[in-house]
UniProtKB/TrEMBL annotation, chain A:
The keyword Amino-acid biosynthesis does not apply. It comes from Chelatococcus asaccharovorans. Residues 1-32 form the signal peptide. This is Carbohydrate ABC transporter substrate-binding protein (CUT1 family). Pfam families: SBP_bac_1. Keywords: Periplasm, Signal.
UniProtKB/TrEMBL annotation, chain B:
Residues 68-255 form the ABC transmembrane type-1 domain. Pfam families: BPD_transp_1. One of its GO terms (cellular component) is plasma membrane. This is Carbohydrate ABC transporter membrane protein 2 (CUT1 family). One of its GO terms (biological process) is transmembrane transport. It comes from Chelatococcus asaccharovorans.
Length: 437, 268
């Protein structure tokens, strides 16, 4: 009996759990508020950015918006599941070009040509609008905001720049010499790349390294230029912090001074730049023999099929693509306008650094824009893996360059043939699947 | 000799406490140390220039309160269901021999064999059709499925550890099977069941993927915060981590007595 008395609080606890669960569970309504526009986004996820969207950027919108964020895999599952089950909760989807692409094949997006027609006078460049068709004849998304990748350097690294080098027109040779000088003087490897599991390193190969050295991404995958390029990059890697293979965002290693010179997406160095703008400089990625490759990043706004509030979504798209909202977006979160808009002169110092870096990248004399992979559908991840594997085998494991390139080229070829994706810039246009020579 | 033993004993205690407390202390330090503090090196052990800014922003994020409530609801339902289903299953495994017993034991574990990421799409579609989508109850059902194998197997070994003779003695004195279970076996097993409940609670509290795919507005706290946490500045991660471990610690602290009682059984 003593046992029962001593243990009865446990029983009570259990009982309370059961009662609370049984009472509260069914009472939670599926959706308490039906009047708002649900805006689901894979962008602007970090907590401060999401708060800025809710409390600053979308503040002037007349209706009520519920801004939700989600990681890309969950976003994909949700969009497809809601489509298959025939019940939508999402009225507006904001995601990267490549994340919206698979939703066309699954039939989860509504063509929004009418909205596009209404936004004609906003001055969205035709090339961006074309990307928004996602390979179809109709407008599938409206460009939302853009970004790109830049280099950031701690000012302590500047004295080691090789003589005669212009930081805004670096070449890969000069970057290597710079890294070498830093390593020789400090004894540390202080260049950094986001080659961690969630880092955006594949974009560096596809948008920067390959275009700069070979003038293409897919077709010259195993060309002589590509072989020379990997040898060069392997040389550069001697001066790259070996921890790079665990970096997902470069802002932390930059702030902790684990690295002095880093390459990453602007959103992923923003925190360092806004925290300590006086410590850093921004500049474009280096150039190779074929030019200065760079990859613009486009996020778009799409309306799911059978959206519960399509009219609200249209109004929200209209609001977000107003020049003043776009400028606010740039000033608050560092993603840049897709419409014609002039950024104010009084940007905060950190955002100003980002804006300068982006501007110098886009307007470099030898700029060579490389588009996001188009037409790969849901094979985008495998496409990235081809490049990451090539990097790992050649640079980290030191395998023979020619052998690795030949092996990976056949994987790439299979991928292109399976998806029948035609070439995209900077590769030369192709009839049918993009060839891997 | 005695003094030496005492020294070793206390050193052991201190080391074990430090093992648990030092990381928590550093998380707290990061959470309250402000934005720049987390990058300072060498780290100061004492809390200098504390700031509540990160914590405040967290608590001000729209919907954190609601998410917390959802988390508690889901965790409580998970706890209740996994005990209600797992304990009888465990009892059956421990006391009865039936054909296919071993296969059954294995089958229970199979619910953990499929990664959720693969099941996510069909599961979400089914949940939408049934009408469980975006409810804490739906999330709790999935979490119960995840917690059930542990609940069943842990309680099976619990019941096995309680001598059958005690139960038989109760029968001799006129108890029915049910009465014998309720009056003799259950009280002895309760500490272990409480531990199983904690386990179920923690599984539900920490699970992210199912919770975020299956809900839109009614997110649990982990789904609401954790998905964005990995990409937020470091001091927010510390603040979020701190916020997420506090309820678990409080819960475990509240039921610690029964946990120790369970070790008592095991040692007998």
């Amino acid at each position: 009996m003593t046992f029962t008395r001593r243990l009865s609080p446990a029983a009570r606890l259990m009982g309370a759990g059961i009662v609370a669960g049984a009472l509260l569970g069914p009472m939670v309504p599926a959706s308490a508020q039906q009047q708002d526009v649900v805006f689901l986004s894979t962008q602007l996820r970090p907590i401060e950015e999401a708060q800025k969207v809710r409390s600053v950027i979308l503040k002037g919108f007349p209706g009520k918006v519920t801004y939700l964020v989600e990681e890309p895999p969950a976003f994909d599952v949700r969009m497809k599941a809601e489509g298959q089950a025939g019940k939508r909760t999402i009225s507006l989807a904001g995601a990267l070009h490549g994340e919206l692409q698979p939703l066309v094949a699954s039939g989860d997006l509504t063509p929004i040509d009418d909205i596009a027609a209404k936004l004609k006078d906003r001055g969205i460049p035709a090339s961006l609008m074309d990307l928004g068709k996602l390979g179809t004849q109709q407008q599938m998304y409206i460009p939302w905001m853009q970004a790109t990748y830049i280099m950031v350097a701690n000012k302590k690294a500047l004295p080691y720049l090789p003589a005669g080098a212009d930081i805004n027109a670096l070449t890969y040779d000069q970057l290597e010499a710079w890294g070498k000088a830093i390593t020789e003087k400090t004894g540390k490897r202080l260049i950094g790349f986001p080659a961690g599991p969630k880092g955006l390193m594949p974009r560096f190969y596809q948008g920067y390294l390959y275009p700069s050295f070979t003038g293409g991404v897919v077709t010259p995958f195993q060309s002589a230029e590509a072989q020379a390029m990997w040898a060069k990059f392997k040389g550069l890697w001697q001066y790259v912090n070996p921890n790079s293979t665990s970096y997902d965002f470069m802002q932390e290693p930059l702030m902790a001074e684990e690295v002095w010179v880093a390459f990453d997406h602007v959103a992923r160095v923003k925190d360092a730049l806004t925290q300590a703008p006086e410590e850093f400089v921004t500049f474009p990625a280096p150039a190779g023999p074929k030019g200065r490759g760079y990859m613009p990043v486009i996020a778009g706004l799409a309306v799911p099929k059978n959206a519960p509030d399509a009219a609200g979504a249209a109004a929200l798209i209209d609001f977000i693509s107003k020049p003043e909202t776009q400028v606010k977006t740039a000033a608050e979160v560092g993603f840049f306008p897709v419409v014609k808009a002039t950024l104010p002169a009084d940007l905060s110092p950190g955002i100003k650094l980002i804006a300068e870096g982006v501007d110098k990248t886009q307007n470099a004399k030898d700029a060579l824009p490389a588009l996001l992979p188009v037409g790969l559908g849901d094979k985008g991840g495998e496409f990235n893996k081809v490049y990451s594997d090539t990097f790992q085998r050649i640079v980290l494991r030191g395998e023979d360059i020619k052998t690795v390139l030949a092996a990976q080229a056949s994987v790439l070829k299979g991928l292109m043939e399976a998806t029948k994706a035609p070439c995209w810039a900077p590769d030369k246009p192709s009839q049918g699947a993009c060839p891997v020579n | 000799m005695n003094a030496l033993r005492r020294t070793v004993y206390f050193t052991g205690i201190v080391a074990l406490c430090a093992w648990v407390l030092v990381p928590i202390y550093f998380i707290a330090l990061g959470a309250f140390g402000g934005r720049i503090g987390v990058f300072r090196w060498p780290k100061s052990i004492l809390p200098t220039d504390t700031s509540l800014a990160a914590m405040q922003l967290f608590l001000q994020v729209e919907g954190v309160g609601q998410a917390m409530v959802n988390s508690i609801i889901a965790a409580c339902i998970t706890m209740a269901l996994s005990i209600a289903l797992g304990a009888p299953a465990g009892y059956a495994l421990a006391r009865f021999t039936f054909p296919g017993q071993n296969a059954y034991r294995l089958l229970i574990l199979l619910t953990r064999a499929f990664p959720l990421a693969i099941l996510a799409l069909p599961l979400t579609v089914a949940f939408i059709r049934i009408g469980l989508y975006d409810t804490a109850f739906g999330v709790a059902l999935i979490h119960t499925a995840l917690a059930l194998p542990f609940a069943a197997l842990v309680s099976a070994s619990l019941f096995q550890a309680i001598p059958r003779e005690l139960e038989e003695a109760a029968w001799v004195f006129g108890c029915t099977r049910l009465q014998a279970f309720l009056k003799v076996v259950l009280p002895l097993a309760l500490p272990g069941i409480a531990a199983t409940a904690i386990f179920a609670f923690v599984i539900s509290w920490n699970e992210v993927f199912a919770a975020s795919v299956l809900t839109v507005r009614n997110r649990t706290l982990t789904a609401y915060l954790l998905t964005v946490l990995a990409e937020s500045p470091l001091h927010f991660r510390f603040a979020g981590g701190f916020l997420l471990i506090v309820p678990s610690i409080v819960f475990i602290f509240a039921v610690r007595k029964y946990l120790f009682a369970m070790w008592g059984i095991a040692n007998r």
